[in-house]
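Collaborator request, handled under Task 6.
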Amino acid sequence: MRRSPAEDRRRDLRHFANLVANKGVAAVLTSLLYFKQNVPTSRDAPALHRRPIVSSTARALRLTLHFDRALIYPSHMPPNARTDVPRPSQFGIEDFEELIIPTNDGEKLSAFYIRGPREGRNSNVTVLMYHGNAGNIGHRLPIARMMISMTGCNVFMLEYRGYGLSTGEPGESGICLDAQTGLDYLRDRAETCDHKFLVYGQSLGGAVSIKLVADNQKDGDIVGLILENTFLSMRKLIPSVLPPAKYLSLLCHQVWPSDSLIPTITKVPILFLSGQQDEIVPPSHMRKLYDLSQAPNKIFKPLPNGDHNSSVLEEGYFEAISEFIASVTQEYPSTSHEKRRL
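Structure tokens returned to the collaborator:
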């Protein structure tokens, strides 16, 4: 007896939840809290106040500078994240490639290209996935599998420098170069040069995605941007996760100015997925980004019970993505690589 589409979606969602629970991916959901748990909180304030002013200021300065790298980019979390990268085959994914992509500054980036159904409705659409600030691309494979199941798109997962099996050290300018390198690779690749692209970013990956789309929207091949639980800017996020350093946030060298960039995106529709129980990025950041957006079409999808790392498990999450992709791929016809370059 043939199942209905709704029954198929429920089956896929159950399978997705089981993958997260049984394949060790849940470790990432816990370890990402490192970002907030390993910095001083307001409870530390009395101890700070009892110290000499110079000492307190120097300590806050050290915390801010340390925050720049170790806390913004905990690429070693969970333990062994730099060496233990799950492979697509571990999640029942068969049609994929493991890639090493060079950057023009000498780094080598690990990536997965995962194909959707060859003759599917979105076989000419590729989603570029940019993940949050901990773990590696392998930890997000259940999301990629679910994305393919729900939408029929291909999925490209690029590993930032200093994460997973990629070389180098993470930093804002380098990661932006990595994202551009990934898009350029797909544009030049014979199999994908005619594809329509959607860019999907979670948390830090949202900031990466906003920058990438802002820089490339005029080429016409990016037809949608999907953002989940991302922030206005790193400097505006610091007071929420590191209260003692809020007055020194301007010293943070990792800026990620999404609030300045998102109004410049005027040619690409945007879907905002916002967990209303987010304990790391205040939900007000997502709402403000939505308000600042000048996109030709923008959708705000609140997830009432979603926190920073579990919003992907909320009811309606993948349905919203599927509907968004269906709408933007119908609106924007395919264009050839040659036409884009004219």
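The cover message to the collaborator said: "The first helix runs from residue 5 to 22. Strands lie at 96-102, 108-114, 125-130, 154-158, 196-202, 222-228, 270-275, 298-303. Please let us know whether this matches your experimental observations."
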